[in-house]
Design goal:
This protein has one domain: RlpA-like domain (Barwin-like endoglucanases, Beta Barrel). The protein has three helices and five strands. The protein has helices at 3-7, 62-65, 129-138, and strands spanning 13-18, 45-54, 73-81, 106-108, 118-125. 31% of the residues are buried. This is Cellulase.
Length: 143
């Protein structure tokens, strides 16, 4: 599936979630998670906001310590961040942490302007109807 076509013209963001967040591995296997890892697999959605804190940001800056760096956005998992080759970022199994101590990792193909490795807090939601409709038109994987 072309992930750009999935969200093209819609107000959503496409992400690849860590292998540990999927059930088993990999394509259309659903959401896994557990033991501190959120299940967010193939075509799962969430709403969330970026924080001012993040990987590699200046921790002495007052803005780093608290607050949101973005408004609320909706994401859709359209790809996998496999552990192999991404060991630094993407844990392999539920309960494992990445090099930065996080159970969950989401790779944004195109984050909002001004966002660069900021932490993202999210809550899973049912994917919006327009996105579900487009997904079913484009995919052989119907859930």
């Amino acid at each position: 599936m072309h992930t750009g076509a999935l969200i093209g013209g819609l107000p959503y963001y496409s992400v690849a979630s860590a292998q540990s967040m999927w059930k088993g591995c990999c394509w259309c296997g659903g959401s896994g998670g557990g033991r501190g890892t959120m299940g967010l697999g193939c075509f799962s959605c969430a709403k969330g906001r970026f924080l001012r804190s993040g990987y590699g940001l200046d921790s002495t800056d007052q803005a780093y310590r608290s607050g949101f760096a973005s408004g609320e956005i909706i994401i859709v998992v359209a790809d996998l961040c496999p552990h192999q080759g991404n060991e630094k970022w993407c844990p392999q199994w539920a309960g494992q942490r990445n090099q930065y101590g996080a159970h969950n990792h989401l790779d944004f193909s195109h984050p909002p302007p001004g966002i660069d490795n900021n932490n993202f807090v999210f809550t899973p939601i049912r994917c919006p109807r327009d996105l579900r409709h487009r997904y079913h038109q484009m995919s052989k994987c119907h859930r």
